[in-house]
């Protein structure tokens, strides 16, 4: 239906992001510590980013995309797909690209601390699954030989 949110638990995702923002001035170090722990081979790709500005910009664009993805979904689905292709130019494989959203969830959960709820957890599990499905579905035609 027009105007209806694309994602049923949008309110929980929004509330968890608001809570994390209140509790933690900058989630950038939390997110990237996780990323570099899991994918140390990605660290050299940020050689240009001497002041962490690119990392911060990438994260803030990701937050905006997540909010749009759970809300009106005016651009986020297309943006995620086009960034996935752009990132291949940075030598970031699709499988690695897709893991970023999970690191964001982990950082939000850490910032929320004891105020993280079962509802937040469920909403993020659903959101990450939807993004994975979207990426898989969107990638499939691209992966076929022309
Ligand atoms: C683990 C997964 C990811 C890795 C390793 C990664 C890596 C990178 C790297 C190395 C750059 C900088 C390129 C340069 O030197 O200019 C970059 C930029 C960027 N990334 Fe990611 N990325 C990941 C996931 C994502 C996701 C999921 C999004 C959004 C949906 C995203 C959005 C962006 C944007 C918008 C920029 C450009 C920032 C700017 O304006 O300079 N990235 N990414």
Runs in which pLDDT lies below 50 for 5 or more consecutive residues are none
Q: Which kinds of small molecule does this entry bind, naming each only once?
A: protoporphyrin IX containing FE
Give the tally of structural domains.
1
Distance N to C terminus: 36 Å
Strand content: under 5%
* Main structural class: mainly alpha
Keywords: Heme, Iron, Metal-binding, Oxygen transport, Transport
Protein name: Globin domain-containing protein
Family: Belongs to the globin family.
Organism: Phenylobacterium terrae
Protein traits:
single chain; 146 residues; mainly alpha; 6 helices; 0% strand; globular; metal-binding; oxygen transport; Mb-like_M; iron
Give the SSE layout.
Blueprint: H1 10-23, H2 28-38, H3 53-70, H4 76-88, H5 94-112, H6 118-143
Helix pairs in contact: 1-5, 1-6, 2-5, 3-4, 5-6
Bound molecules: protoporphyrin IX containing FE (HEM).
Protoporphyrin IX containing FE binds at residues 35, 42, 45-46, 48, 54, 57-58, 61-62, 65, 80, 83, 87, 90, 92, 96-97, 99-100.
């Amino acid at each position: 239906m027009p105007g209806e949110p694309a994602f049923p638990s949008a309110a929980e995702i929004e509330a968890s992001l608001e809570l994390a923002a209140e509790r933690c001035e900058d989630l950038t170090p939390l997110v990237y510590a996780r990323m570099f722990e899991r994918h140390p081979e990605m660290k050299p790709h940020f050689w240009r980013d001497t002041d962490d500005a690119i990392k911060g910009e990438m994260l803030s664009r990701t937050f905006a995309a997540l909010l749009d993805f759970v809300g009106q979904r005016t651009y986020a689905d297309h943006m995620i797909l086009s960034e996935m292709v752009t990132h291949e130019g940075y030598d970031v494989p699709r499988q690695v690209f897709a893991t970023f959203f999970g690191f964001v969830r982990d950082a939000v959960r850490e910032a929320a601390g004891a105020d993280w709820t079962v509802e937040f957890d469920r909403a993020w599990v659903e959101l990450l699954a939807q993004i994975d499905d979207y990426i898989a579905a969107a990638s499939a035609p691209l992966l076929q030989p022309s």
